[in-house]
Amino acid sequence: MTSLSELNDDIVRSMSIGAVFSDFGGKINSIDFHRTADLLVTASDDDSVRLYDITSAKLLKTTYHKKHGADRICFTHHQSSVICSSRHNLDSDGEILRYLSMYDNRCLRYFKGHKERVVSLCMSPVNDSFMSGSLDHSIRIWDVRVNACQGILHLRGRPTVAYDQQGLVFAVAMEGGAIKLFDSRSYDKGPFDTFLVGGDTAEVSDIKFSNDGKSMLLTTTNNSIYILDAYAGEKKCGFNVDPSPNTTIEAMFTPDGQYVVSGSGDGNLHAWRIDTTDKVASWDSYIGVASCLKWAPRRVMFVAASSVLTFWIPNNGKTTTETGALHPEMGGQPEQITLK
Questions:
Q1: How far is CA 272 from CA 71, 203, 262, 294, in A?
Q2: What pTM, to 2 d.p., does this model score?
Q3: Around Cβ 204, how many Cβ atoms within 10 Å?
């Protein structure tokens, strides 16, 4: 695959579908790449958790979780272990977060405490801590090694959380466009800084830090995208995409921090260059409105998903067949390549 050091406007424009998996029985709720291994995990409405090798576009493992379902998901540091939140039976037993082994399909630990659905989930990049934000208006901090909650933050509105890439800081978005920054080693002392994103009353649905830690990307529930200076909180630029009444779209930085890519209510994917705010590319997603969108940490590749999962890679003059056949550079064969 093309190396990240070569990323430029032409390569971004050349991105096209390399493989398609359309055998999901419902909407894909969440996707995550492993930080160091070439692995992708998905959680979907059909109660499945699926593990993929992204270099060969191969489905490695599928596990089903009929009792609790599969909603938000993220890798731990282990290649075959994930944290997954529940969709079903949220009130009956409170087992709303589970530490799962994909290797032998075992639940290694339950985490109880949240009273409503988890809408934000992220793993620390440096240790065994992870955070969850719930519609019960709380953020909980956990350690995968113990059942007990390690810390709790109560706040207004829909909570959204994210660690920076060094694991030193985490950001919390709350009602009214307030972004609070915490030192992850002493969060009990309260936020060390608060930013206000003025002019937009919509709730923040997602936060991401750029790899260099200098910028934050905010996506709101009305499909506005903002890039903030992570140190001063100033708004660098903003982008808007078409509304998607029944789907929350996702946006992302490329790993080099030069570009932002986003889904849209018009069923397209859009890419902008941050330093000039110019739109670099627009692609038909071929899957309707993409609710999940993430760029691989170490590859020139991203994944877009609705009820269909698509792998996007540079075309380099080659073409992908109309049936979604695998791009020659990826090698291997996907288990399902029907594109509708």
A1: 29, 23, 9, 15
A2: 0.91
A3: 27
